[in-house]
Amino acid sequence: MDRVCLLFLYFFIYSVLGWICETAYCSIGKRQFVNRGFLNGPLCPVYGFGALAVIWLLRPVYEYPILVFVAGAVVTSVLEYLTGYLLEKLFGLKLWDYSKRPFHIRGRICLRNSLLFGLLSLLLVEFLHPVLHALLQKIPPWLLDAAAVVLFVLLLVDLAVTVCTVLQISGKLGQIGQVLEELNERNAASLQQIGKRFNESMDALKEHQKERQAEAKERIDQLNARLSELFTQKRMQRRIFKAFPNMQSKKHQETLDRFKELANQKREKKRKKKS
């Protein structure tokens, strides 16, 4: 039990440190705070898993810094690639995309990030992990176990909430696509009906328009109201969009682009009101 809790604490601490690095890097580039993480809490699990993989898989080459750098870059890049692949398969969303960077593989990993991961792996093995290991050894085992249990429960709750949020986004994109498709079909049907009546008398055309106008207007108003409701974002959904501005959807990319555009417009209006 003590060993399992210790491993989890390593995972948790490195996830938090990874979140700090990722958030600082993105916030400096955006010149505003960006909670850069899949979860709502201040941690990036991919960094925690990456750190554990480096610590245990690279142990035989600890004495060779160059090998640690290269192997660390490879191990962490494979992990990032698999993470991106699984997220795409599970949610139909691509949360990050490195397609515009040189030497990328399907936009999931790129050379620059791999080199940075190799450097972080070297720092982890040479400096960070020995210090952290020594610090945790000074804490009573019962306290480590209690901390691990509490943090694990919090992590599970955060994971459940985040997964639900991402599934809501994915489902909402599909619903928006259906509403837009029905609106387009109704507009096309209206034009088609008018075209059929074009050669008839004006009185017949006017009568036909009156018959259909009220029904069509009511349904279109319902669809537009539903569309407006779907485009309304909740706080956690806004956080996901802000954390992953390059998010892509395999099935509903056009709808996602419109979603992002409306979100940006709302942010601009809020900024203008504050200024």
TrEMBL record:
Keywords: Membrane, Transmembrane, Transmembrane helix. InterPro entries: CmpB_TMEM229. Residues 247-275 are annotated as: Disordered. Pfam families: ABC_trans_CmpB. The chain crosses the membrane at residues 6-25, 37-58, 64-87, 115-136, 142-167. Residues 251-266 have a biased composition (Basic and acidic residues). This is ABC transporter permease. It comes from Solibaculum intestinale.
